């Protein structure tokens, strides 16, 4: 049976079940930590740190951005030198704590995107996740436009930012990612993704995966990610 690609409603259902105390028992902090770790591990496996040491993490205001901030922390410990562009920080303790953790590791934050792009080897797109819909609003419309004009390789978390979660990049307004790191299960919009495709998020209980027919691949050894294309 082939790996199942899921739509927005099912992705939301899975998250709800995972964070239901009577079902999954996970907190948002736990899921974000595990997701961010799997992203960092996929980056490590796909992009040699000697060739791509400088990683620009472009973070959005939601959970996708939080995954990116967690990934940045792990990338430091994996030997990379991340920089954070976080144009619309979220004023919640969880996100403040993630920023504090990065500040403690001396990870620089920058508001100057063009300058940051001139000093990076790889972009980690953590702007929009599976909850995104509608038009790309400021300030992210200009951010995505700037990233699209760059020739630097992009790795996207869960779905390339600007893509419709179910229809893909039909409008051609989204990012042209070289690598996609899907979380939990790949999204329907990524069926026609052409590039390196990884799956991260090794936390879905087997009963949940079986009930929803996800047909998830096995994760090798202690890895938190697996390459699916």
Automatic annotation (TrEMBL):
Signal peptide: none annotated. Pfam families: YjeF_N. GO terms for molecular function: metal ion binding; NAD(P)HX epimerase activity; nucleotide binding. It is found in: Cytoplasm; Mitochondrion. InterPro entries: YjeF_N_dom, YjeF_N_dom_sf, YJEFN_prot_NAXE-like. The keyword Cytoplasm applies. Its cofactor is K(+). The keyword tRNA processing does not apply. (6S)-NADPHX binds at residues 63-67, 129-135, 158. GO terms for cellular component: mitochondrion. Its EC number is 5.1.99.6. K(+) binds at residues 64, 125, 161. Residues 11-216 form the YjeF N-terminal domain. Binds 1 potassium ion per subunit. Catalyzes the epimerization of the S- and R-forms of NAD(P)HX, a damaged form of NAD(P)H that is a result of enzymatic or heat-dependent hydration. This is a prerequisite for the S-specific NAD(P)H-hydrate dehydratase to allow the repair of both epimers of NAD(P)HX. PANTHER family: NAD(P)H-HYDRATE EPIMERASE (PTHR13232). Belongs to the NnrE/AIBP family. HAMAP family: NADHX_epimerase. This is NAD(P)H-hydrate epimerase. It comes from Rhizophlyctis rosea.
